[in-house]
Amino acid sequence: MPDPLFLAVAGAAVVIGAAVQSSVGLGLGLVAAPVISLLDASLMPVALLIATGVLPLFTLASEWRHIDWRGLAWGVPARVPGSLVGVGVVATLDPAMLGAAVGAMVLVAVGLSLLPVRVRPTPAALLAAGTVSGAMGTATSIGGPPIALLYQHEDGPRVRATLAGFFLAGIAISLLMLGATGQADARQLTAGAALLPCVVAGYLLGRPLRRLVDEGLLRTALLCTVAVSGTVLIVRSFL
């Protein structure tokens, strides 16, 4: 079992991140990843992938009817080649430097999304976003921003359900590839399992916030969350 200090600090970050993701659609990884990295970088990304893999199940249980199945059909398969890139990064390169580059790209994408041009989840866009998300999620445990940006103009339930479906499939792919290549060990899996009660608590805390988010605040909340994730990736690379 992880030590009590890790469980207290990382658990608090997971509760906050899960509450954000429960209402907006993403956020657990961006809040908890830097905290867990600072406490024990050797647990990343597997421990957080375990925790983030459970939260989509709760979201899908209540909002599965709003899933964009067409979007998942294009985006999820594209995560496979992206995850292969992410596995290579974890095995051979410094994930922090990749995080800085990805973070910068995320911030540029947020800036472009503020322009009058509206990006839609077309097959080509989903393929590209799915590939980038796979690489980001596997290497850094933060893979939501590319897909979230494509759905920023959709309604709240559709965003949350579609992102949950994408996360569930994508995280399973990432964990399978990391395990198959020897990048996941029992210590990381145990730490992730120990954080699961915090995920449940955060999900329950975030549910009352959905109404506020859905009443015209979703796009602003989503863009702010994605922008924070990009900033977190950049800052984390220099810590």
Automatic annotation (TrEMBL):
Signal peptide: none annotated. It is a multi-pass membrane protein. InterPro entries: TM_pro_TauE-like, TSUP. The keyword Transport applies. Keywords: Cell membrane, Membrane, Transmembrane, Transmembrane helix, Transport. The chain crosses the membrane at residues 41-60, 72-91, 97-117, 124-143, 163-182, 189-205, 217-235. It is found in: Cell membrane. It comes from the Bacteria. PANTHER family: MEMBRANE TRANSPORTER PROTEIN, TRANSMEMBRANE PROTEIN YFCA. Belongs to the 4-toluene sulfonate uptake permease (TSUP) (TC 2.A.102) family. This is Probable membrane transporter protein. It comes from Nocardiopsis suaedae.
